[in-house]
Design goal:
The complex is a heterodimer.
Chain A lengths: L1 H20 L6 H16 L4 H12 L1 H4 L1 H5 L5 H6 L1 H32 L1
Helix pairs in contact in A: 1-2, 1-3
Chain B lengths: L3 H13 L1 H21 L8 H16 L3 H21 L1 H10 L4 H25 L4 H7 L6 H11 L3 H25 L5 H23 L1 H26 L6
Helix pairs in contact in B: 2-3, 2-4, 5-11, 6-7, 6-10, 6-11, 7-9, 8-9, 8-11, 9-10, 10-11
Classes of the chains: A mainly alpha, B mainly alpha.
Chain lengths: ~120, ~240
């Protein structure tokens, strides 16, 4: 487990450096993700120790945003004031996104099978 | 007095160290996760939402300011970046499974991603939401750890973004199947991919619990949307008219 964690931290470090010096608009961890992805594609497989750490993280990813999300208590008056805007925006957006994504896939797939 | 003093001392000690915030965070999540499993992984019993409610209620009860809580809980928060990097593994696994369908999937992803931003920002703005709320809508369809990083770089609230992302995930996980049924979308890979684009991690767990193929495609959609969002949203942000 430790070798996997060390690897991930090193990729994160590389991402942070690249973000700081080269691509300031993209968060460091995302660049770290892209680097690690490229490394895996070149390598052709996921090393076991890396898979161990990654699976542990992805199973409980939600835990890690509890501290930040709890900050919502500071925004309660603002959210209450705009409650309808927030609810309708989130609801409308998620329904439209599902619909458009699925329709594009369905449309392209039908075209592909007809040709 | 001699009996209440030690308790008081323990309290002073605990509330001054990160331990209390860490215990609170992990216990609340543990309870949330337990309820989630007990409910047969129902999206409405989302462990993050439950944990946030428990922590918020506890802070109110303990009369502890949020800033003080976060001082301790930041050790959990810090791992978000590390967890983001490790998302490369599921994305890689997904990519390996579906080389032939890449074109249509990318087109669907870009359309879905643009619609998610345009509709959320458009609706929130036309109903008079303020700048902070509209800004937090921009990256809410991207998986929360990446969305928060993107929001932070753009000067929007990572907290509101995380909350909107979690609510989006729950709504998508619960409602997507009605939309897909109404549109007559039957293939599992199409259903899964649409759920993953719209409802990231929470939608993906839901998709996995319904069908493995849907889950794999949802997971891939979530990963690709994360990368695309992180790269494209900062570029697009200059063109999104806010007020």
């Amino acid at each position: 487990m430790i070798p996997g964690l060390v690897q991930i931290l090193l990729w994160q470090g590389a991402g942070e450096l690249a973000s700081h010096f080269l691509l300031p608009t993209i968060p460091g961890p995302v660049l770290g993700l892209v680097f690690l992805l490229a490394f895996l594609v070149v390598r052709g497989r996921v090393p076991d120790n890396l898979a161990l750490v990654s699976d542990a993280f992805s199973q409980h990813l939600g835990l890690l945003f509890v501290p930040a999300a709890t900050g919502v208590i500071l925004f309660l008056p603002q959210l209450r004031e705009h409650a309808w805007a927030v609810i309708l925006a989130l609801l409308g957006s998620v329904l439209l996104t599902v619909a458009v994504t699925a329709l594009v896939l369905k449309g392209l797939n039908r075209k592909a099978t007809h040709e | 007095m001699s009996r209440s003093l030690p308790i008081h001392e323990i309290w002073v000690y605990l509330s001054g160290s990160p331990l209390l915030a860490l215990i609170l965070t992990l216990t609340a999540y543990q309870i949330g996760f337990f309820l989630y499993i007990r409910s047969n992984r129902h999206p409405l019993a989302n462990p993050v939402a439950i944990a946030v409610l428990i922590v918020a209620f506890s802070l109110e009860l303990l009369d502890m300011p949020y800033a003080k809580y976060f001082e301790g809980a930041q050790f959990v928060h810090f791992l978000l970046g590390t967890a983001t990097v490790s998302l490369a593994v599921p994305i890689y696994r997904g990519l390996r499974e579906l080389r032939g369908r890449m074109g249509p999937l990318l087109l669907a992803l870009v359309s879905g991603g643009l619609v998610s931003i345009a509709s959320a920002v458009g609706i929130a703005r036309s109903l008079g939401a303020d700048h902070a709320i509209v800004g937090a809508m921009v990256s809410k369809s991207v998986t929360a750890p990446i969305a928060m990083g993107v929001a932070e770089r753009l000067g929007y609230s990572p907290t509101l973004t995380a909350v909107f992302a979690v609510i989006t995930g729950i709504l998508g996980a619960v409602l997507a199947r009605f939309v897909l049924d109404a549109l007559g979308v039957k293939d599992w890979w199409q259903r899964g991919f649409a759920i993953g684009v719209a409802a990231h991690g929470i939608g993906t767990s839901r998709a996995f619990s319904i069908h493995p193929e849907a889950g794999t495609y949802a997971s891939l959609a979530m990963g690709l949307h994360g990368i695309l969002g992180a790269v494209a949203i900062p570029l697009l942000a200059g063109y999104i008219p806010f007020f």
